[in-house]
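Aim 2 progress update. The chain analyzed this quarter is reproduced below.
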Amino acid sequence: MGNCCETMGNCCEAICNVRKNTNVRVSLPVVCFLWQIAMVVLFGVFIRYDDESDAHWEEYKEANNITSDIENDFYFRYPSFQDVHVMIFVGFGFLMTFLKRYSFGGVGFNFLIAAFGLQWALLMQGWFHALDPNTGKITIGVESLINADFCCAGSLIAYGALLGKVSPVQTLVFTLFGVTLFAVEEYIILDLLHCRDAGGSMVIHAFGGYYGLAISWVLYRPKLNLSKRMNGSEYHSDVFAMIGTLFLWMFWPSFNSAITDHGAGQHRTAINTYIALASSVLTTVAISSLSQKRGKLDMVHIQNATLAGGVAMGTAAEFMIMPYGALIVGFLTGIISTFGYLFISPFLEKYLKLQDTCGVHNLHAVPGMLGGFTGAIVAAAATESVYSQQGLIDTFDFEGKFAGRSVGTQGGFQAAGTCVAIAFGLVGGALVGIILRIPIWGDPADDNCFDDEVYWEVPEEEESIPPVLEYNNHMINKHQELSESNFSVEQS
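Predicted structure tokens:
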């Protein structure tokens, strides 16, 4: 009996030790081809140009007394769209290149997620917001492209928590579900609850952050320490990641203001975001320096926490929070985010078994949640003397069935919207994580994470030049070497 149990134990141990099959030669092409063909079919059935991008634009102009092409929404929105587009593909992509051996995966899988996600987002958001009940068609224009990029941002944020631990097939799967969940929670928050969230503190950052964290928690890897040697940065990888930080930091005012109302609302949103971002840089540097005995800065903090002000201003930026209010938001979130990297992330990993590669908890989840509640407070405190009667109507869209809503009620719904975003992220992420645990996706083993060679053809490292390195490494013994050299010359 003892021998039987021992044999069974050995068998179980052998099964557990079988290396995962990371060969995605069949699964990845199949998923890419089938899903792209599905996009072609669905676009053919549902997607059409809107009035401002259709060839009948001239007729539309005449019917609506429009005198110039410059009044086409393209000319208002396209500059902001390009800024947002750069953030999605360059900013988020390069921010994830900090790992020493996972730069291809960081920027390359970011590219894959966004390219598929924006197509699915145009459909999902179209079905909820732009479906014509008479024709059964979805009409899209430049604002649709901006919203699709916003939708992708939720899945890209989630990817930050999973970076280096998932296969390309898994990235497509959690993007499919992430975009779907995003479209539903966005519809509930913006349409049913009638919240204002132009920069997405709630619908993008809080949702995306908690969505990724929940997936990461379900996909917990007990032996991830076996890949610890790869889970770190080097000098050049941190420099590349700073490229992503700077692109995100510079274009964040466009991100928050891209779909706000033309005029004062858009102008105010850009100003408030600009100021909050600047404030968060100084407090991030301060806390990072204080945390080290000799006051040295940690590049992880500078790459991430300096952006927290932009995240936290996503909801309240178009409100009359005032420039000093924006400074306060940036000031506090820079501190909170940096403390998160110093203390909260290690706590979450040690006690809650939450392995968050990029620290999205500190850059997106918590600042997004704080941004949502900040928006609720600012909305509830709004007065006619500050906004004017028409200003209140324009800022909070108090029109139609919401014409009688008070600012206090609006503040309550803003807070409720934040809770909805968090709930969708946590519950949806847990369910998607269970799906991703099925052993068919080609994800790497615990001792093979954070390494590009698993899924990419990686060029061989260039050979160093031994004489140069040898000379540099032995400069400390230069007097001995010089004497030996002189002796050799004399002997010759």
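The two ends are 81 Å apart (CA to CA). The beta strands are 47-49, 138-140. These observations will guide the mutagenesis experiments scheduled for the next reporting period.
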